[in-house]
């Protein structure tokens, strides 16, 4: 259980009180049709994540909703649904780089459409939900089941990674990865996590810890390097 800063921890406490009695459905997306990423003068398409697709479908079943997969998981569709979602689970690539050169590193990779480029950046999250005169998110939990989603380029109070932007946007609890993770092990871990959270009624930190212990003792992916990257940021309850 961590927080980007003491200031962020104070914010998550306030957010938990605000959202605890709000209602809403779950938003689950996985393995979107990958957009092209510019690498120098060239463009390349990010790898498809079949494990993330299976993960999203299994998590959606636990949360009694339907996952957005492939071309359905556009940035526009996700942003439209994020505002009123109670739980947000995004199983896709995460990028650390400041891809738009605006000084705000971090992006969630989604499917592109005529309205967007498929990269939901930290700065876009802040602009939509985290600034004065914007409506904050209602989600009590956001899970970024992706590569490197927890890290920002700047340490301490100044970090502007995806975790910090989502806290500023009103989210009290996040589950993010701190290093690159394989999608098959992540799929197994996340199914255990949500089972612990919703069927065994554990809090978020306990649910993640028990999921990791299950992986370690008899899981199909017992090596901690494959799943120990995940951590709860903010509120455990």
Write the layout of secondary structure elements.
Blueprint: H1 6-19, E1 26-32, E2 36-39, E3 42-45, H2 50-62, E4 68-70, H3 75-82, E5 87-91, E6 94-95, E7 107-109, E8 119-121, H4 122-130, E9 141-145, H5 162-168, E10 173-177, H6 183-199, H7 204-216, E11 230-234
Parallel strand pairs: 1-4, 1-5, 5-9, 9-10
Antiparallel strand pairs: 2-3, 6-7, 7-8, 10-11
Helix pairs in contact: 2-6, 4-5, 6-7
Molecular structure report:
- With 237 residues, this protein is of the alpha/beta class.
- It has a single domain (6-177), classed as 3-Layer(aba) Sandwich (Rossmann fold).
- It is 34% helix and 19% strand.
- It has 7 helices and 11 strands.
- The protein has helices at residues 6-19, 50-62, 75-82, 122-130, 162-168, 183-199, 204-216; strands at 26-32, 36-39, 42-45, 68-70, 87-91, 94-95, 107-109, 119-121, 141-145, 173-177, 230-234.
- It has a 6-stranded mixed beta sheet with strand order 4-1-5-9-10-11, sandwiched between helices. Strands 6-7-8 form a 3-stranded antiparallel beta sheet.
- Strand 9, helix 5 and strand 10 form a beta-alpha-beta unit.
- Helix 2 runs parallel beside helix 6 (183-199), helix 4 runs parallel beside helix 5 (162-168) and helix 6 crosses helix 7 (204-216).
- The radius of gyration is 16 Å and the shape is globular.
- The termini are close together.
- Residues 153-160 have low confidence and may be disordered.
């Amino acid at each position: 259980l961590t927080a980007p800063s003491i200031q962020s921890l104070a914010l998550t406490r306030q957010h938990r009180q605000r959202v605890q009695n709000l209602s809403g459905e779950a938003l689950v997306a996985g393995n979107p049709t990958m957009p092209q990423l510019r690498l120098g003068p060239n463009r390349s398409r990010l790898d498809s994540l079949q494990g993330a697709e299976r993960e999203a479908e299994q998590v959606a079943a636990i949360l009694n909703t339907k996952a957005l997969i492939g071309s359905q998981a556009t940035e526009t569709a996700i942003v439209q649904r994020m505002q009123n979602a109670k739980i947000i689970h995004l199983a896709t690539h995460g990028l650390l780089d400041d891809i738009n050169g605006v000084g705000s590193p971090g992006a969630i990779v989604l499917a592109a459409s005529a309205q967007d480029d498929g990269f939901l950046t930290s700065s876009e999250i802040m602009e939509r939900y985290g600034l004065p005169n914007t409506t904050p998110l209602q989600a009590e939990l956001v899970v970024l089941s992706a590569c490197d989603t927890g890290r920002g380029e700047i340490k301490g109070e100044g970090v502007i990674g995806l975790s910090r932007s989502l806290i500023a946007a009103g989210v009290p609890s996040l589950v993010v990865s701190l290093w690159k993770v394989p999608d098959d092990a992540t799929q197994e871990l996340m199914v255990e996590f949500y089972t612990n959270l919703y069927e065994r009624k554990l809090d978020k930190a306990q649910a993640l810890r028990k999921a990791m212990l299950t992986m370690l003792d008899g899981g199909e992916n017992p090596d901690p390097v494959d799943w120990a990257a995940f951590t709860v940021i903010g509120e455990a309850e």
